[in-house]
What we know:
single chain; alpha/beta; Rossmann fold; 42% helix
Amino acid sequence: MNALLTHPGTQYAPHLASELELHGALGRFVTGLAVTEDRLFGLLEHLAPPSWRPYWDNRRIAGVPSARLHTFPTLELRALWQLRRRKSPEAVFYRRNAAFQRMIPDRWIEEATHVIGFDTSSWLLADRCRAIGRMFVLDQSIGHPRVGECVYSELRNRFPEWSDTIPRKSELHLACEDREHAAAHVIVAPSEFVRKTLLDQGVAEEKIRVIPFGTDLRMFRPAKSPPRPPMVFLYAGALTARKGVPILLAAWKRASLGPRAELWLSGSGHLPPSITKPKGVRLLGKLSRCELADAMRRAHVFVFPSLFEGLAQVQVEALATGLPVIGTISSGAEDLVHPGETGFVLTAGSIDELANCLLQLAANGDMVHTMREKCIASRWLRSWSRYGEQWFDLLSRVCVEAH
């Protein structure tokens, strides 16, 4: 097996690259700006001050030899410069992704047994694979974009004060993702929610496989003992309407838990000027991965009421840390949470359901403790190695099916 893995940014692609390398299945990993640990800069980076390291959190490629890593750093640096100049993110990433696909040589595609690309950055690559008879596997990281646009439209009407946090895609960019779905031989979705959105938009059921994300179990590990009162509900993610922050704030007000509980909000962004921070809410700002892992060890429950995701990886991280998760169907929580045992799966957008859930857990510390123990007992399910095994099994099967 000789897989060509392509991703113009990083996200979780480095973890897939290292897992494929462990299974002897990685031919090349092509990305924008990254460095392996066996290159000089990768070695020097370990000597850098800790304050520098968050800038490279998603750029260090562990477990992949430099001979298998191919980068186009000028594309990424140009995109980052344009974003700093406040250019439209949608336009910036579209141009970067198109250029990235064109820079991949035909020879690399021809030498591969499988080509793996990611949503929003594979419409040209998928066509090229079809043209020369190579199997193209699309990694669909989030729900179908046309379903997303319907959700975003409803959010703009429901929460107009949050409208500048709600994305909007042009028809051109939606059509590019339609091309990816049509040309892909296999589509890997991270959750049942994503699978359903693809089916709703007419994607063939036989194309779709579900493989949930993993996480770093060494970083996201439980505290040695449960945290003390007051009960802390932790949210981690951008402070946007899509992530359900206005739902969470409204539910928190309705639950009116008083001094027995706190709500910690971590992530980039800020509350709209018209929104007053409710009592008991702490804004932690954007945290590094290490800082987030530490915050999770000091919390009791993780809450993530997102209205549109793929599978929010912070939920995986929370469960691995021993935190029961309050998620939604749209956050991908159905694939992770056993309701009543390791958390709850709510209807996205329901303030009443979320408020009642907050009240129930805040009043029942014994239930939270029991859930914590069950999360810890099942944390082995959250590893990147399990994720890699499922990918390797999939690629092995589809290779046999193709022949």
